Amino acid sequence: MFQKLLVASLLFLGIQFVNAVPNATAYCDSTSGICYQGYTDPTLDITVGLTFPPVSTDGGANSTAFIAEIVAPVTYGWTGITVGGSMAYSLLFVLWPYEGEVILSPRWTTGYTQPTPYYGPIITMLPGTSVNSTSITASFLCENCTYWEGGAIGGGDLEGTQLIEYVANNDTEVFDPANYASNFTIHDVYGSFELNLADAHFSDFFSLL
Q1: Which residues form the Cellobiose dehydrogenase-like cytochrome domain (predicted)?
Q2: pLDDT top residue among 189 and 5
């Protein structure tokens, strides 16, 4: 048990092992029509994708928004991602199904402890968000989301690279599924991929909304 927790802690803190981290590739969601840079884990059957507005070319401030898609088996108790490459001081998202609906909860924590709700992001669920007999899909616009307390995606460089990590609990539900602030047990599966942010900007981003 200790070894399992240690390995999970090291991975979620961004410490990688000898296995090569896969790179994100382009794909388009057949339901929403939105195209992402992302990755599908062939073992865990988890897909994570992100797309961003164009970076500013006139010296103005960049948008703090992105669109994300998370797809996971509906049998998982919960699924989560970090867009900051670690669990601590990073923007996290946790999702689970409840009575046919998707519960999506932004989270944040200072360490390898229970993440609590994080109230900076402005979330808008988009078409394609669904729960069916096999999978749960969250497609959402996240505003005020490229910076957070203690960090920023790409370390503040929206044309840099970012490690994206995803985790899940195979079968244990959150303690209070109706409550987006519910606590939950530790993840027991995890993975990661490298996102080249320069490839993830879409010139007509705002037409997707």
Answers
A1: 27-205
A2: 189
